[in-house]
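General statements about sequence and structure are easier to judge against a single worked case. When preparing material for the folding task, we compiled for one chain both its residues and its backbone structure tokens. The amino acid sequence and the backbone structure tokens for this protein are reproduced below:
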Amino acid sequence: MLQSVQLFSLCLCFLLFPTFISGQFDANFTLQNVWGRLPFEPSRSLIQCVSSSGQPEKIKFARTIDVGEGLKLPKYTQQFLQGAPVYSRILFMPSGDSLSRFGAFHCEVTSGGVTTKITTLKLPPERIAEFEPEETYIVVNQGEKVHLIMKEMKHLDLPIRWRYNGGDIIEKWNDQLTVTIPAASLADAGIYECYYEGRRNEFVHGILRLIVRGCEAEKFGQLCDQDCPICYNGGICHDLWGMCVCPPGFMGLHCEKACGANHFGADCTKICSPVGNVDSGCAIHLFCKPDPYSCSCAPGYKGPKCAIECKLGWYGADCKQPCHCISGSKACNRITGECDGGCDHGWIGESCQIRDPSATFLPNNTNISCPVGKFGKTCDQKCHCKDGVACDSLTGTCPGKCENGWSGPSCDECVEGQFGENCENTCHCEGGHIDCDKNGFCIQGCVAGWTGFTCQQKCNQGWFGQNCAYSCHCKEGVRVCDTITGSCEGDCEAGYMGENCQTFCPNTHYGVNCNKSCTCKNGGHCNRIDGSCVCEGRWKGSTCTENSPQIVAAPDEEVNTGQPKSVSCTADAIPPPSIQITTSKLPDIHSKIKQLAKNQYQVVVLVTATEAGNVEFFCIARNGHGFTKKSFTLHVIDPPVLRERPKILSVNSTSVTVGWRPWEFEKDEGGKKSDRVNYMVVYREKKDIQWQKLDTWQSGLSAIIPNLLPDTEYEVAVRCQRVGRGGEGKPSLKPTSEGIPHDFLAVAPNATSVQLTWKHPMLSELRCRLLAYRLRFWKTSDNVSMQHAEIASSVERYVITDLAVHTNYTFQLYPLTSSGLGSYYASVNVTTPEAVPGPVQNLRYHHVPNPHNLLLTWDTPFGNTGSLKIYSVKYGIASIKNCGNSSFEATDPGVFTALTTKDKQITLIGLQPYSNYYITVCASTSAGFGDVQELYADTKEAAPTGVPQNIRVITVGKTVLEFHWDPIQCDKSNGKIINYEYALQHVTYFRINKTRKKRKVLNGKWAVPVTKTNGTTVFLTGLIPFQSYAFVVRGYTISGPGPFSKKIFEKTAEDVPPAPSLSVMAKSDKDITLKLIPPNPSHGVILQYRLSYWPAENKSLNTSFILINNTGKKDDDDNDSGSVKTYLLQKLLPYTQYSVKAQCSTKPGWGQWSKITTVSTEESLPEPPTFIHLLSRTNNSLKIGWSPPGHSNGVIILYHVKYQPLSTADPLYDVEKSLARSSNVSFTTRSFDLTGLHHSTEYQFQIRAATQVGFGKKAEAVYWTEFAEIDAPPNPIILKEHVTDSTVFIEFTPSDHAGVRKYQIIVEAAHNTAGVDEIKLMGYKGSVENKIPYYITAELDASEVSKHSKYNFVVGDGKTYGGFTNVPLKAGERYNIRIRTIAQFEMEGRSRSAISFPESSIEVGRTEVRNNQTQILGVSILYFIFIILGLFVVLTVLLLFLGLFLSKRKRKSAQCQETTNGFTNPGISDTGTWSVAYKVTEAEASDSPVVETSQAIILQKGNEKGSFAKQNRRKFLHSPTSVRVQKLSDYIFNKNTRVTSGFSDEFHVCTTLTTRLFNTNS
């Protein structure tokens, strides 16, 4: 109930929370950035901001910071408001704004005093971007480490610079592409730029935005002390308000509800695109939300342009959310995350993103039963339980732990830091293990030192850092740097410095470690590697202190014609330059250089120009750094001259007044347009030569000539003057004294006549009556042929005929008055027009080397009809000789090719060889073209330009091909075909893609070289089966061969293949990797391969055949021999030489076997040594031997023996404190002596053999050193006061011997005098059946007995002890009670035993009470003592005699004693020695020297009483072997370790001998 109340309170809090802040922070405020990356082609780009308030007019746009283009919005930007249902404001940026749209923009809306702001970026087009952020928008929590990474898209040799929020350059980040902020804070949040120095205003640099949440992860609030709610589907908790800022396309308090395709917004009512394009409507849209969410693609898309759809198994914004669909179905809706088949176990919600709190377990589904190691509805999923334990058949959960590398409820997830199909790969992610997804992809890239798609590849030599993106810059010879830090073992490469040699040298230093200073001046840049200077502008030289020449002055000048003038050129240069002034119009100019100032030099040249015009001069200055050239002009101007005569304004007897019009540029002679001209009147008597002039130059246009002589004829002229020396012009034309015809003009109406027109002179000018006109005219070039004509005075028009064509004539018209022929005349020159020329002369054609060309030559037409302008040449083909006559018509202009030329020859090109052409040539003047001259010409033969036609294959065999073709077309044969040439080339194929292949002709690899034939069919033999060939053929004329035809491809038929090639790629101790190289050529499609291999020493041994199918694509177009195969021969014997051969098959059958390849497997670890055996032992030494391993797997180089004590029978010896010892033994020895051991101790031996590879597995054995003698068993004390009719109560002290394992209680009849034979010991029932007077009544475990200092036992209580029944005793019977101790020593299967001697017997049923008179056997103790003494004396005498007797026989006979299964037991209560029956286990027997038998070796006694008969002295017998008593124990042990009857035989001989001796003596 309490939990329900808390949940209700929490829900109520979240329901009220948005109401509280709805007027303030707008978490649903959304920015759409369409084309977040600007397109390269001209295209619009826009930003749309959508507010949930429904008041788009409150939204404002602005630039966030200045990243090089200022803070104003782009020039052509427009803003629009959009109403229901979107309610947005749009910032529209047309293509005209180009790259000014680059940078950071934001929109903001204010509600209730709280401003919600969203920032987005416009990136440059990919094609021109110089830097690219690895991640454009980075969101981190406060205190987290963050890397800002830029990728260099275009390398320039310029320094790299960073800025933050448009501020100053961050010097410490210079020339770095990756920078790290160790612990991000709010002060670090903002926009970062990376660019090449000097290129920030190009707007092609990298830009990214860092968003820092103000709290640690999962916390919010002013103090960051409140826990964030869970935000699903990629939502982020706001660090101040604590609400979820949802990704686009999701809504709800926890972003748990998906909007679906093409929708977004607080209530999923906003759409991206029109309804007709629903599924892909939100593609290319970058969505931005208020911080700390930042920006992402719409759900279902990712990539820099938000145009890549999510891969299978992922969904949501930027495709970062994994699907959680039911097992067996990885796919979910890439937009919403919904699963068609439902959510996977443990997940709920619309998008299956909410963990199910109740999914702690699933009940076992008894209907599903999978094999061990499998689970799932179809048992197709693999369990990953530790030690192979079976998992739940339905869920896959394990009852215990997951196997190594796996985790999760169903052990189906890799442990943190591992990935891969079997979780065998280790993550190497920059963000740590949490940054590694299940496919090994690292979201933030690889950690330093690693690269590759899953960061599994170590950096190649010469690269380091995150993603191996940085090249090492270590000094030459030490180029390898640390793959993680980039640090070098030695110095940095020239041009670099810093801890990891990644920092460029500053401009002032260069060289290794930047330890040398630069000497560049005048703004020169120092080369950071060798210190050489890269100079700016004109500066040159090693230190930028010199420069190339620069002409600083070469002014244009002006001079009057014929006057000297100085021209100059001034240049600036270091070192001094050579300067030269030249002009093509004034040769032989000599100049001399002089220095004007520091580094400034001048050359001056004095020139005189005699003709008006512009003289262009060139000044060239050069030194060792280059040259420069500049032109300047000398303007040469003729003095001005009036073209019109001055007018006589008035005349008297002594003076004349003259006037003139002003001088005008271009209308008059000389001068230039801007001249201001002065005038001077000159005059002379007609008879004089020298002119006289008035006093001064004037600017007026009239003057009075005074002081003239009366009645005297004068000539008067006017001179003009311009500025400058020599600016005075010559006198103007003299004024007329008589009238001449006015407007005298000549017009040539045709080529042989001229029409003259004029106007009559004024009578006032004539001063006499005009009688007629006299005309003089002549060829201007020849005044000898002057002609005359008299023309009436009334005529003003006259035509002259029969003139020469195109000839210049001079006409002079004189007035004839009553006073005679005038001295002055009107004059005009005219040229008669041209006429059309006649035909050209001597038209001929000439062959040239090129058969497609003809050279035409001719001479000019006869006579002069004018200036010949061009010749017109027309030609057309009349016939092609190989094709018969054509339908050529000379009158058809469509068949002609027309050319023109000014020369009297022309080359006709591109003609058809071996053809007849019709050619015409005519000349032209300005009057037109004249008559044509005709010519027929033949072209030479040429090589054919066509190819044989209809080439086809008519026969195909395994090694033969037959081709046939038709002749070349007649118009392309270019001559008579004299033969054909053909060739055949090999062809190979290469694959373009999975479905297409392309042929490639092997140039130069001729199957049949170029060969001539007279026919049109060839039969080719000796070809390779199943080989593609290219056949070509060409024609041949007397001029040579034509082009080859297009290749005709054909393949020969299949045949059995040649042998493939075998080579060894790799080998190990058990495997050989073979490279199976198919035959080339293959003679067909390889279908199968067959391998045969066997040990080289014996081919018949284990010969194996392996059939390998060729799985490659087999089609008729694939004529190669297939790909190289590799095959792994497995389960081979180490260090063994194998022989291998191979063959392959095609459709026709199996081919040849390859040559036998011999290869040996590598050495391996040897198998354990065999047959470890004990060679000898003592109580302090052991000698062991062994045999070599069954398979040595190489050359045995030594053996290693390790030994240590395991247990001991000596209680004083502490095994735990003894250390293991080891020793190496030569491979030739195979035995080892161990000395200094401890007695009665069990030792473990480990023996390993070694090859070059190392030591193999161990062989183990356990042996004991000789035992110390076992202590005498304890004697039981009979407590007679507790004796009953069927029981006897005994007490004994346990033995302190560590080897004692059992205590046996033996009941013996008191009358038994033969002693106890341990071999015959058995239980009560067996003893009765075998009539043995003793039996084992109980067997006690020593571990229980040893717990008591005194152990009490009731003999005859009827219970069972250790498998023996403690039978009640019989009343009235007398018994002896003995105790037998058994010491057993494991691993050797041996034991020792001892039986106590009975001190007294006890009669059951009679209670013996002690009294004051002690009696023994009913006799007083005093009498008993005397009896004993007497018996002792008698016994002593008997023993003395017996000793004397035996000493005489000692040298002749061996003393025989009864023996047991191996050990002498001095503690036994009888004189015989007994065997203990102890069955060893099979395992013990394998490593034990004890004879492998389940039965005890029973040695029968020769006489029940144990006494020996005396030997017959006459028949003394030797035993087969003499053994000293001291060595009898070892002798018996050695006999028992061998499976032989020798010991029994010896004992039999010994007992027989004893019997004989006894009988003899008796």
DSSP finds nine helices and 112 strands in the chain. The first helix runs from residue 2 to 21. The two ends are 113 Å apart (CA to CA). Residues 1057 and 1066 are 26 Å apart (CA to CA).
